Amino acid sequence: MSIKKTRLQHIVDCFSGKKIAVWGDFILDEYLYGTTRRISREAPVLVLSYKNTELYLGGAGNTLLNLKDLGADPLPVGVIGNDTAGRKIIKSLKSKGINTDYIVIDKDFTTPIKTRILAGEETAKKQQILRIDHEKKVPWTPLLEQKIRTHLENLAARAHALLISDYNYHVVREDMFQAALPYYKKSNIPVTLDSRFRILNFKGITALTPNEPEVEQALQTEINDNTSELEKIGSAILKKTTASAVLITRGSKGMALFEKNKPVTYIPIHGTTDIVDVTGAGDTVISVFTLALTCGTSFKEAASLSNFAGGVVVMKKGTATLTPEELKEAIVS
Questions:
Q1: What is the tens place of the pLDDT at every residue in 266-313?
Q2: Is 283 annotated in the active site?
Q3: Which residue range is the domain that position 153 belongs to?
Q4: 207 lies in some domain
Q5: Residues 20, 74: contact at Cβ < 8 Å?
Q6: Are 183 and 152 in contact (CB under 8 A)?
Q7: CA dihedral sign, ordered 28, 58, 102, 147
Q8: Has residue 92 been placed in a domain?
Q9: What is the rounded distance in angstroms from the CA atom of residue 217 to the CA atom of residue 114?
Q10: What angle, rounded to 10 degrees, do the helices at 60-69 and 281-294 form?
Q11: What's the Cα-to-Cα distance from 39 to each of 47, 49, 52, 56, 279, rounded to whole Å?
């Protein structure tokens, strides 16, 4: 795949100010750090001496941060609870200059929290020893449903793209997606999907960016480095979702782009295969891919840019983002 580097850099310059509606699940990621020195007398468990807590935006929140750091104007659409976690999410978004007008606060909903407990000796690297998920499905009511439907319809006249970030808390519903989709198609606005467990449920999507385990789970099969099986699966997902493109991310093996009536495009990984951390890399990929589409690119150009971006963030620890300058540097390196 030969694409001029100057062309890709020009596309990155186009990201600035793009309004991207992000419909999805907003989660608070909580990290509790401590040191361990002994076993409890009460039970055969470690005693943790608490040190500090760090809070981060999780779920669709990381996609918002990626878009913001790339120069875009993300517009989150979703539901949070009228609770401490929800207020922390709103405060964090506002501190980043992200509009929260389209987030609905519902008193009957509990904002999802993922609490990770990390421990180790004083001078040692802390390891995760436990994760506690506080999670509930959205308690849909006619009023709540109408608010989200109205937000999605209104944003079709304002946004340059709709990005769906689905972590299966059912803030994103298939029937609401089908009701909103015509508004975006009428305006020729791309609609992209990143879904953990329901990639086949959103028919008519412009493009989706699943990873290999997600497509294997969706079709109940295994790829196992089998190119013919990968191509069969990619073609099946393209057909089942009636999407225009499917970009399958493959970790150290790069990416595979499937388009209607076109041969598969294989994109080798950018940079080294000695990856530091893949956490959140999928959020970076779909953020860059979506932004590129709003700039009138081909799917191959969007995929190429996403590959460069993914190669940057996997070399950073934890959930990471990148800047336009970092992306442009990766293109020419």
A1: 999 886 555 544 566 889 999 999 999 999 999 999 999 999 999 898
A2: yes
A3: 5-26+58-111+136-332
A4: yes
A5: yes
A6: yes
A7: negative
A8: yes
A9: 23
A10: 50
A11: 6, 12, 21, 30, 31
Radius of gyration from C-alpha coordinates of the chain: 20
Q: To which residue do tokens 């089908």 refer? A: 178
**Spatial contact of 24 and 66, defined as CB atoms under 8 Å apart:** no
pLDDT tens readout for residues 37-85: 889 999 998 899 999 999 999 999 999 999 999 999 999 999 999 999 9
Residue among 25, 166, 194, 283 flagged as catalytic: 283
Half-sphere exposure of 153 (CA within 13 A, CB side): 9
Q: For residues 95 and 115, what is the distance between their CA atoms, to the nearest angstrom?
A: 22
Alpha-carbon gap, residue 287 to 292, rounded angstroms = 9
Cβ count within 10 A of residue 8: 21
d(CA 242, CA 202): 9
Residue 51 lies in a domain: no
Q: Pick the range with the lowest mean pLDDT from 67-81, 131-145, 314-328.
A: 314-328
pLDDT of residue 36: 86
List, in sequence order, the alpha helices (H) in the chain.
Answer: 5-13, 60-69, 84-95, 142-155, 174-186, 212-219, 227-241, 281-294, 299-313, 324-332
Identify the CA nearest to 8 among candidates 297, 310, 299: 297
What's the predicted TM-score (pTM) here?
0.93
Could you give the CA distance from residue 39 to residue 47 in angstroms, rounded to a whole number?
6
Residues with Cβ within 8 Å of 230's Cβ and at least 6 positions away in sequence, in order, are 212, 223, 248, 256
DSSP H or E run through 165: strand 161-166
36 assigned to some structural domain? no
Question: Total structural domains in the chain?
Answer: 1
Q: Tens digit of pLDDT for each residue in 141-193? A: 999 999 999 999 999 999 999 999 999 999 999 999 999 999 999 999 999 99
Residue 279's CATH number: 3.40.1190.20
